[in-house]
Design brief:
Four copies of one chain form a homotetramer. By secondary structure, chain A is of the alpha+beta class. The first copy, chain A, has a single domain, classed as Chorismate synthase, AroC fold (4-Layer Sandwich), CATH 3.60.150.10. Chain A has eleven helices and 17 strands. In chain A, the strands form six sheets. Chain A has a five-stranded antiparallel β-sheet with strand order 8-7-9-15-10. Chain A is 32% helix and 20% strand. Chains A, B, C, D: Belongs to the chorismate synthase family.
Chain lengths: 382, 382, 382, 382
């Protein structure tokens, strides 16, 4: 059983990932992990902080001389400017000058429900943890899982389909392999899966336009996994269905409001004969399909086709353009302040989506092929 | 901690729901539960079986003299025609005539991945459990939760937005209360939230048309909860976020391929200022919003507004119109057989969606409000 | 992941066991299971009820034509005299004549803390579930696990070491194989592991003497497993240590107050050189030990030697000889009534101990060896 | 739901504790926590390392300005001499000179089963995690829980009953309050609950004698909790019984081989009338008992009396006096090496026992009185 949690506050000492149940003797690729960290920080339209912080992972436990020990893996992504925040964020007791207390909850954030739930008088006690900076821990743990999967031939990737009203033309995608789409996305500043300067420009203009208006933007991205074996997940109990687990993992990413598997909502509009993937067989390939409307999962079980997940991200709730809100102390209305300055984080969220999908698939893999060590897993898997 | 599982095969002795952690001394409303069972079985376009089986719940444990005991609740929905299936489905050993073995997996079902995962030579070993009949257990347990919630002022309901290409006009919904929409849905054969014979007719025609062509249809439905208190779920860990839990619960329903919370995919298209719900305050109402684009959840925590979830159901994979598949024994191609005859089960799925939402909310409620007994819960809740 | 729960009240419709995650295609041995049920009901000094109820297991789900389906297994042990209890125990609402309410909590039972926790005015709401009759469900599920294990060469058994002041002489045990000890226990009315009429007589006299005095007796029993592979459990996290899991499972049995693994408390008295099992190696046997003071577990991991667990059972809290207590309604003192009439249930508890050990080992086995189906498990295990 | 895990290797960067679900707004007492850390390191007969390392806790997350945030708490106990171990323990890849590989498993440790389970060629990969140094993390998290409990009037403590053959005379304990016993233990170098220089001397002599012979010693200790409310834990499911959870938590401590609750094994020898605690009532005290043979738990539920747990620790497996073992590489026999030099760690284990008991009680408390914040918990509790 894979256990995965994160800890840490946005401006605290760091963000941490706890990963337990990962096979022993896995050779950790430190560069791969740090590259993944960097991928989360890229993207046209990110604000200033992304430049300050070059996230790197330090292993605090569970890895020795380059290999996993089978014991709990604790990863740290230290916050480089913690020193500047120490007065406000330190664990040690201390009085905060009243003006440093945040009493103004931002619409669209955990701020207000969080403060009411926990009985805080300082919104910072909520926003520090609800911040999307937490996803650094997800990407760190996800990187380890992605690396494990790719050594077994399972590739996890992502690309962006739309940002605000800018859309990738569907015909530019059709017929292309996930490999190609992914490579294009890797070379795009907005993670779109087409190598077309004009389309790229449309996306950038959309972002620039929003920025000019003090607006923020959301978008839609795809996360996929190829090379997935048949039989992960199970139809036998509601909480063992892999589609449900994926939906939870993706929906749990900050600002995600919708998740689709395969055709998703499109499947609700089409007649059955247009939706279900017919089954074929040949001696070389075994059972196979010519379509993948199911997105790789039938009855909660992987069917050997690529897993395809689509996610909708709402615009970042922090705007230059203010929204009305109410001070929790004075109960006076105000216009909501800006805590952070990204216009659009969809490409970053897509990378986080990869991490979460990789974690869920790894967990399902280790339930089907329990493996104390990586060699064992490798052996069982083939 | 609420534990909920189902057991049972579609043509076995029955479907069973196991519910543990439910408060003691809750007065069970048997009629309410059986009405919920009936609601799952209604809907224009259901096949023959719905008429045979009038599902009723028998409590096997956990309830005494009308009240819950705090001990595990086991509910049975006996299959009335088990006798006719005994030869094929009995637990006792026995040779099945080869012709009674199902070797033909249906596209769109768990059939093929299930058979490959578990190493079966009879598809029935999978389809009996992956069948949507399992949702009878979900509705049974969900009914208990719904009943608990409504006594605390939390109403859970659902309605259908579209079936195939038939859509409820958005303007017919706008401005209406959930109460009204729900009441309309209750009076509609296709669970649409408008009392408009013309629209109703469009839906029925859509279903009739599909039936005539040997097709099946999916659709989109809304599940909602009103009266939800602030503070269910938490932003502090990915798997404590209520939106993630809801997404898993809804996506785990058979044939669901998409889940949205609040605006969902629409939120990805709009600028931030059109998406985030501004915050207001008055002495009578406390904090409140004038919009609910968030669907009642911000940062993984309920914000006091109604929870609104949208789900996309694919067409039932069993068609009269055959799809190509391959016999698992002979490896010969064939055209997929019909195991069951519903054209459209969207209204039923919406009722199942209510059950799953009610279970998730109840679980979150019991994590926030201590309640060994219902009186205690009631007291604390107010 | 193996999930195991029970449901059901002592005089309700039945006792039920829910077992999920058990491999598919396992050929269920119905006779074996029912023999296990009978073993739980045997033992010198049991009261009248054991004669009424010949427990038999009915599979409600998860088994088809003699083989497991991989889906949740629900087992029922129906209560044969439920009809006589229906008025008092039925789930349907109904007024109970005040004199049928139990208001007198028995010392040593869950009665009083249970009533206070849940706010009941009828002790029966607690005692029906806390009763040791619940262990019928444990034995049912445990039998399935025991059967799986023995087909992999892992034998789980038990024997009694003492009842009250009657003790099996240690020298009668030393040097004997678990097989022989177990066979002796199977032929003894008090489950002692020696075939010595005199010792048997001592035990019976102890029980008879207690009965005459209106007393009840506890005792000490051993549960063991032979043929256990190296590597179940893990040292890497506190809750993955197999010794901890075993301790929980055994301590959770009604009336158990002490658990030892290997030497147990004896290990606390001896110097290190007398406690730790030296390690040897030969080509035929691989690594092995000449002693087993560790009871088969080092650092929370099985070491290939037999698992040996000792448990202490307190006397059954229901006595003919009354104990002082207080009526929960009137707050008047009284002398505690007799609900049930066993003098000694140590042999039965030992059989329950086997079930719990078998369940814990099976769970650990399935975490180490992937096994969607029994064939797969068998293959991997060797 | 309280989640508690540790991470870290004995000579790695540090030992870490992850604690999630702890109420918000709890004022952390840093001195208290560090005093608890120091208590774990005391005790007559500890080896050299205890002097090097003065463990102190650093909060990496979850605490701000002296108060908990409700978000995951990550605590670090840095290893002060990691620099000296860096070559051997660093996470970064590197070749270890063959002579630095540990190939000699010590009897009584996880060494051999661990190496076989995970397929390691270096025993250090196991022993670094199985080491009792891990308990620093348990004590850190336990200290937070102990502090929470004592503010609610629940005191958790421990004392030693025996070390090797040295025993505290029972008559020296009888009739004394837990408070007094605990205070005595705090002032004793061997944690015995009596203030008697002669007895203290006997214990020290026992330890000195063992040391002279190259031996190690185990012992028996008591962990207790007073002020526990009625109703923690539940009789309704085997894994909800508090006694089972306590047994797991205590048995999971390194080197523990036996756990008793209340009378424990003694209860197996006595007749029922001598075991069960009679129930009394007065208006001032409510229900109460004059005896506490049950150790505070009946039917898996706390009954309001002190929880009393006894644990048996085997001698530390590392001896100066060598034991026979086998090199895992050469398969040659050898006499087992000394990794660490404590003669007796029973007093330290008792402090760890306090931590584990405090964690289990806190978890049960938060299941009965779920509380987002400490104020809420305080309110509910009274």
């Amino acid at each position: 059983m894979l256990r995965f949690y994160t800890a840490g506050e946005s401006h605290g000492k760091g963000i941490f990932a706890y990963l337990e149940g990962f096979p022993a003797n896995f050779p950790v690729d430190f560069d791969f992990i740090n590259r993944e960290m960097a991928r989360r920080q890229k993207g046209y339209g990110r604000g200033g902080r992304m430049k300050i912080e070059k996230d790197r992972v330090e292993f605090l436990s569970g890895v020795r001389l380059g290999k996993t020990l089978g014991s709990p893996i604790l990863m740290a992504v230290w916050n480089r400017d913690y020193k500047n925040w120490e007065e406000v964020m330190r664990p040690e007791p201390g009085q905060l000058p009243p003006e440093k207390k945040v009493t103004r909850p931002r619409p669209g954030h955990a701020d207000l429900p969080g403060v009411l739930k926990y009985g805080f008088d300082d919104v910072r006690n909520v926003l520090e943890r609800s911040s999307a900076r937490e996803t650094a821990g997800r990407v760190a743990a996800g990187a380890l899982c992605k690396d494990l999967l790719r050594r077994l031939g399972i590739e996890v990737g992502s690309f962006v389909l739309s940002i605000g009203s800018a859309q990738v033309p569907m015909e530019a995608i059709e017929g292309k392999s996930f490999k190609e789409l992914f490579e294009n996305a890797e070379n795009s500043q907005v993670r779109i899966p087409v190598s077309d300067p004009e389309v790229e420009e449309t996306f950038k203009r959309e972002i620039d336009g929003a920025k000019a208006k003090g607006e923020s933007l959301g978008g839609v991205f795809v996360v996929f996994a190829t090379g997935v074996p048949v039989g992960l997940g199970s139809h036998t109990q509601w909480d063992k269905r892999l589609d449900g687990r994926i939906a939870q993992a993706i929906m749990s990413i900050q600002a995600i409001k919708g998740v689709e598997i395969g055709l998703g909502f499109e499947a609700a509009r089409l007649p059955g004969s247009k939706v279900h993937d017919e089954i074929f067989y040949s001696q070389e390939r075994g059972f196979y399909r010519l379509t993948n409307n199911a997105g790789g999962i039938e009855g909660g079980i992987t069917n050997g086709e690529p897993i395809v997940v689509k996610a909708a991200m709402k615009p970042i709730p922090t705007l230059y353009k203010p929204l009305r809100s109410v001070d929790i102390k004075t109960k006076e209305p105000f216009e909501a302040s800006v805590e952070r300055s990204d216009v659009c984080a969809v490409p970053a969220a897509a990378v986080v989506g990869e991490a979460m999908l990789a974690i869920v698939i790894t967990a399902a893999l280790l339930e089907r092929y329990p493996a104390d060590s990586f060699e064992e897993l490798r052996l069982l898997f083939y």
